[in-house]
């Protein structure tokens, strides 16, 4: 018996054996669950740079869509998604904010969340715009290129479906 198990579970009489076994089992399962959770948390942390790059590319695509709509080159977007994108951009540049920029490290967090949420909400419109411009889907929507998430298949505009 190791020193740790002797300290935590000292030997007792046989009347307490079922209770102690239950306690040991619960503590062991709890420890294993915590170790497993730590292992699972490592995977999302490793994907953070890829997710940030993808969000930045989607935001750039959204800004390009707004510019093309403003100049009249692209009109195939409903007013709702257009308002969501425009509102997110205006919020990010407005001086009135939920978290002021003077807070170290947290000042730009609210803008980043609003912009990422806006691009997520108008994803189907961004995908349609991506098709319109002839951009590769993998640059902006890696899950859509792999056929995940109910995405539309990528078909060139000049080929009948």
Question: Can you describe this structure in just a few lines?
Answer:
This protein has 161 residues and is mostly helical. It has a domain at 50-145. The protein is 67% helix and 0% strand.
What does this structure look like?
With 161 residues, the protein is mostly helical. It has a domain at 50-145. The protein has 7 helices and no strands. It has helices at 3-8, 17-71, 79-93, 109-121, 123-133, 137-140, 142-145. Helix 3 runs antiparallel to helix 4 (109-121). The model is unreliable at 145-161 (pLDDT under 50).
Number of strands: 0
Strand content: under 5%
**Mean pLDDT rating:** 74
Residue windows where pLDDT falls under 50 for at least 5 positions: 145-161
Number of helices: 7
Rg from alpha-carbon coordinates = 26 Å
Morphology call: elongated
Structural class, please? mainly alpha
Range of helix content: 55-70%
- Summarize the main sheet: none
Could you spell the SSE succession in H and E letters?
Answer: HHHHHHH
Q: Kindly report how far apart the N and C termini lie.
A: 70 Å
């Amino acid at each position: 018996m190791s020193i740790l198990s002797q300290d935590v579970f000292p030997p007792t009489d046989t009347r307490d054996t079922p209770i102690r076994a239950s306690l040991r089992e619960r503590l062991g399962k709890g420890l294993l669950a915590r170790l497993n959770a730590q292992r699972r948390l490592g995977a999302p942390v490793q994907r953070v740079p890829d997710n940030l790059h993808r969000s930045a590319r989607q935001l750039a695509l959204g800004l390009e869509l707004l510019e093309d709509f403003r100049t009249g080159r692209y009109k195939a977007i409903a007013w709702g998604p257009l308002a969501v994108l425009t509102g997110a951009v205006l919020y990010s540049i407005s001086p009135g904010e939920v978290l002021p920029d003077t807070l170290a490290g947290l000042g730009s967090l609210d803008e980043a969340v609003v912009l990422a949420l806006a691009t997520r909400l108008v994803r189907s419109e961004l995908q349609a715009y991506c098709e319109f411009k002839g951009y590769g889907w993998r640059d902006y929507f890696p899950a859509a290129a792999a056929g995940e998430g109910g995405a539309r298949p990528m078909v060139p505009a000049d080929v009948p479906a």
